[in-house]
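Prompt: I keep going back and forth on a fold encoding question. Comparing notes only helps if you start from a blank page. Show me how you would write down a chain together with its backbone fold. Please set it down just below, with no commentary around it:
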Amino acid sequence: MAKAPVTGGDLSLLEGVATHREFGESCVDSCCLPHPEWFGVGGQVSASDADLARRALRKTADPRLLALALRVLGPVAEVADRVLLAPRIDDRRPGGSLPDVFISQAAMRCYPITWRPVTVGSEALRALSRIHATNFADAEAYRKWATGHADPEATFDHWYARLSRQTPPEPELVRGLRRREPLLVARVLSAYCEGDERCGISSGELAGLLEGAVGGDRALRWLGRQERFPEWERSEIHHRVMASVLRHGELLFTDTHHSRLEALLGDKEIPSYLRARLAVLLGRLRPSAREALWAAALRDLEGGREQVLREAASRAPEAWRGPLLRWFYGDAVPDVPSARDCAEAILRGLAEAAPAGAVTFKTLVMQRSVPLEDEPVIMALATAARAHGCKGIQEPWTLRTHGLKGASEGQREEERRRASLARAHMITRVRACAAAMATRP
């Protein structure tokens, strides 16, 4: 079907599509859609088309044209567009049928579509849901939300929801957030970031933000729940904030905070994995106490032990050789899943410690066996061996089992056999390397 001609500033482009007699009658895939980018295919809605949709919302009363304009504007609408969208949420007039495009993971030239009847109000709610990354099932749901969000961009949940739409988030969205009040930015990003570079800012930038906007004393009140924010009623949000604070605690806290932080180790309302992270932090703030802190955490905590073991293997690999050996497929490990997690953590720590810790690495390799099926541990063993100078050890990713999705049973069995042989060969090389370490000066 031929596309409606672009005529510039008037509304004929939208009118031509909205009233085209073939539109929706015979089109079954995205290739016959006029302006497929309006429906999520083949690129983003242009700024000029978005402005055209805004003009239609101001000028026309035609429900079909209004519904199409709302569909066009929705994906690129801004918070300021609420003044155009919100007044339409109660408009129940039919807006004709509009296409939903089903985009599969596999790239296709033409994607299947389904035509669905819409109203002006349903399209307005769809656009508002997109702006705020919050699903508004009906007009009442939007009104209730809007009552508490007179200025959405001043609220935590507006930004948190929008950031969560994709990973990493859109750079412009992150820039928009960072123009807001620093404490709000710290609240949002400390909940959103998980210690990697996929949240739109670097770990160093988040650390600097927490230092400048929060500081040690206030961060301590956050950990102890003497200060709270509405979003922390969801415990998972508060726990993510606590994890960010502890991750960057060396910059936020000093030895003067040590006793108050240490008191939190006994706070059972704080999840075990966070108290393990706290024990690691306390050991860094006061190195003379770190081994006692590690031992107590391994004894008393049910979760998060792998964090403590990685820290010990990285910071004191020789001094802690005995405990590390007990936790590396040894008698200290309570169950099989824990054995895998602890073994991987120890090897990751020894890789970070290299060249220190060579004797401990040799001891673990020679006195313990790593099951071939423990893939993460196998990969960590290869990483540690390479870090300690072992030659001929393949890249860790080659030891994974690949390509099982969609494969036949015969293909899956062949890939499992290949991976198992590669792992056994790698372990043999690592053992030979570790045995030779005894003869090195």
